[in-house]
Give the backbone structure.
Amino acid sequence: VMASMAHLQKEKLRLQEELLELQEKLAAQENNELSLSLQLQGQVETLKAKLLEQAQEISRLRSEQGGTDAEKHRDLLAAENERLRQEMKVCEGELRELQRQQQAPCRDCPHLQENSGLQEQLSQLQREAEEMRAKLVELDLEVQQKTNRLAEVELRLKDSLAERAEEEERLSRRLRDSQETIASLKSQPQQIKYIIKTVEVESAKAKQALCETQSRNQYLQEQVGMQKQVLKEMEQQLQRSQKTEAQLRAQIMMYEAELERAHGQMLEEMQAMEEEKNHAIEEAFSRAQVEMKAVHENLAGVRTNLLTLQPALRTLTHDYNSLKRQVRDFPVLLQETLRSARAEISQAIEDVHSTNRELLRKYRRELQLRKKCHNELVRLKGNIRVFGRVRPITKEDGEGPEAANAVTFDADDDAVLYLLHKGKQVSFELDKVFPPQASQEEVGATVHTAGVRGGGSHLLLTLLCLAQVFQEVQALVTSCIDGYNVCIFAYGQTGAGKTYTMEGTAANPGINQRALQLLFSEVRGKAADWDYAITVSAAEIYNEALRDLLGKEPQEKLEIKLCPDGSGQLYVPGLTEFRVQSVEDINKVFEFGHIKRVTECTNLNEHSSRSHALLIVTVRGLDRSTGLRTTGKLNLVDLAGSERVGRSGAEGSRLREAQHINKSLSALGDVIYALRSRQGHVPFRNSKLTYLLQDSLSGDSKTLMMVQVSPAEKNTSETLCSLKFAERVRSVELGPVSRKAELGSWPSQEHLEVLKTLLGESPGSSAPPGRGHVSPSPGQLSSRSASIRRKLQTSG
Ligand code: ADP
Ligand code: MG
């Protein structure tokens, strides 16, 4: 309602404004009208002036009518005519007199001369008269013309007079009309009437002018009428708007009334609500009172309950007091009990301690036994273990049928591998086969895990390690600490993953680094009883030349020589040995060797695929309690690519390289064949490689060959060759393994000590209890020591 009220108020204001506007318009209209009537008055004035002018003109014309120019001219001519006639009459009289005088001749009279003069004068006068006559005729003609013209002018004057009369009549008619109009206009506004009256009293000429202005006045009247009509319309509009205003006012009143009514209603409702509220409050109050009553009742019940609880409380206090007493007594009791318990516990601990000691002793014995058994097992299994590793298909293999996979595995037997060669499936059995998915991490991890567990807990490791191959690798590495010679080869065609397995990458190290890590941790575990020195050498055999990779002069060709001590052992004079104590040291050594190799040759990959790379780790140990010394060698060999090159018709240096590689690898094969067939002569010296590895291949050592193959279809023939070679190697038995252990300090005095030890034992007897076999290193007494050694070997 309020909103509508406000709206209506606004409407009202707007209408009032409109009304004001209209009133202003009306006033302006009235002003207009006034100015118009003034204008009309002015016009009447001017008309009067014109009327006066015309009257003057008429009087002037009337005065002119009497003497026109032509009439005057005619009068003048008539007078002249008269004068000339009289002159002519005078002249004729004179002439007659003269003629008479002539009739009385008188010669030589002076009058004769006078007469002739006068005759001449006469003739002249006659000529003049003639001329005058012509002139007169002319003038007569002119006069005739003038009179004609005059008659014309008179006619015209008559016409114009008639016209004037007509005009006058017309004007008087118009005056009459104007008077009529003025009469009709008498009902008009006062001012105009007044003007009309004044005009009426004006002269008749003014009336004529008024007649002319009447029409104009009429027109103005019409306009005034029109304006009036407009005014009327506006008034009507005003009335209408006043009416609407009244209506709106009524509406506003109505709304106000309604508003009042609504207000009243609201007040009523408010009152009703107030009443309701009061009522509700009263109700709530009464309900609260009822509830209060109930609560009071409850309270009374609780009170009675409380009364009944009091005896219970009494009993509880009683209990509490008794408990308090007990607590007071408790520390004494506790101390007593503790004393007895402590005694019991210490007794028990002592018992456990003794059992523990016993168990530890037994455990150590068991451990030794287990190691012995393990060594025995390794020996029985044969000294050459052969693993196969299949690398994954890589980008370098390309795409299409050439890069298809040709190698499959047996789901149940991890030692079997199938090769699809020329449509036929050939199966191979090795000691263990690694599929491509066997990660480097896995390989290394096992070695590494073994290292972390460390502490010579060989048994535990053997039991815990999952993959057999890693157990083998790890067992081989650790047995090096016990004084065995170990050799791990990577064999296979170029690109089959030899370097990957041996060296690995920086992020994913291979056997080389992990083996050394394992050695370190094992050595650390044994540090309580043993002192160890680990040294490394790195060498390369290229075109049958042995080179030191860590030396100052890498180009220098090294020779393999027999130990001058006559031990039959081989050594390489001038081969650099680095003592390493930590993983950082190894890394430095590897880096050093690698840099050497890189700077030496233009294409490392090519070069490395055509040379054998050897990492020789020597572990020398001394048992501080017993003085037992051990020397173990770990040879880690990355062989040259085994692919057959000759066929492709290589020439020059490439051919020479191939021949050397073929020679050394076939020498390796020959050595293995000889060993397998237990021939008396094993041709170790046929190549630098076999000669250098004699220790690691002969009966004294443990060997692991990792045969690397590519699974790609295009490599199947090389894969076939590699796997065949692997099978051949696997079937070789090297015989029992002997341990290289010496008593006393190396190298001096060793032989005496050895002799002492050996003399204490009967020949052919079984090996002394402890860590494997003791293999003495014979001194200058070479023949004897050799025979002893032989015996020891067979007995082991
Ligand atoms: P080789 O030394 O026998 O010539 P490489 O060790 O150089 O062969 O390996 C050739 C390529 O194959 C390298 O790029 C290497 O990283 C890759 N490779 C080899 N074996 C594996 C493997 N097990 N997993 C992943 N990549 C491998
Ligand atoms: Mg390589």
Summary: The mean pLDDT is 79. Residues 391-392, 394, 492, 494-500, 609, 708 surround adenosine-5'-diphosphate (ligand 1) (CB under 6 Å).
